Amino acid sequence: MPLDPALRERILSAVADGFADQIAFTQELVRFPSTRGQEHAVQDHVFRALKARGYAMDRFAMDREAIAAHPGGAPVTDEHSDAPIVVGIHRPRTETGRSLILQAHVDVVPAGPAAMWTRPPFEPAVVDGWLHGRGGADMKAGLAANLFCLDALRRIGLQPAATVYVQSVVEEEATGNGALMAHLRGYRAEAALIPEPMEEQLVRANTGVLWFRLSVGGTPAHLREMGAGANAIDAAYRVIGALRDLEAALNREAPQHRHFDDAAHPINLNVGRIEGGDWPSSVPCWCRVDCRIALYPGMKPADMARRIEAVVADFARTDPFLAANPPEVAFNGFWAEGYVLEPGSEAEAVLGRAHAEATGEALRSFMSPCYLDARVYALYDRIPTLCYGPISQGIHAFDERVNLASLQRITGAMALFVAEWCGLEEIAP
Ligand code: ZN
User: How many Å lie between the centroid of ligand 1 and the Cα of residue 198?
Assistant: First the structure.
């Protein structure tokens, strides 16, 4: 049932009253340089923040066997984080509403060259209404919003009348195994909301993602013998060309895929990292290329993996050097299907009302071509999963920043969403 207008106003002003503290908490989170494998301290900080609010706490490690046995589990390599997953649980006095998962990830992508940043990436600063810092937008602002939308209700003596799980996960930027681990731990709810930086829009459809490493090797030679193209780095470039052809073929399939039929280039192959060779005057005998490619919802990671292997093997047979030195393909990260948020769910309707109240605009939806943890809740819990969050710039790039006016609007919408979805009850005196 839509909220009473007076209550809506009280909730939105409670969000405004807490917003300075919310910014300060977001800045605390950004100060932790929580790149992959370095998320332990920030997870401890989140644990303390949830515990101080009186939530029942759970903290657990990755169950590598359970992840390996799950169809959405990504390979666990040496680079995989061993930081824990943290969950704070709100239990109401009387369970009368609908339960909810509020999720966010604390891992951030590497900052890259410091010279590309106007300010040090892990020293958050507010400039002209934007909070700058690596991981601020993606997605520590969202993590803070998960806590502060509940705090706003508490500030006016209210709390959700249903169980709410506040999940803080890792590995979102490499495997998605953190969200999967929360699922494997057994947490279930009737809807999930993940405030990723989504330009105040709702994700309607999301691609899956695969990571793979291409390894090209061959007999080392002296420079005077290299005329035949027997150079692992040159050969790796030729294989990348074949993979670009696969990318083009996948994009030509867009019209066959619902929600992607008008997207110009939904499937991106990113050649993200390359290393090889030993010396400027030695012909390189090895090259490794780390890649990421997207797949349409409904496509299975295993099918895409076979397709990539076939492209590489077929191309290698046409190339003298590669035919003699067949390249290897290893899948070393994301092994994730895409998902679609089917229109018409009650959760979406509630968010639509909350968004309209908090922003004055109708809620729009769009297609996202990047990995999202939302796939775990959408595919395996089979619940409405709302990926929706603030306006940002520079995520996965330089001078990452989140717009603070937008963040306040989103936090207001989240508080209204929780109030209507979960219902409210008075906090026990
Ligand atoms: Zn993110």
Answer: 10
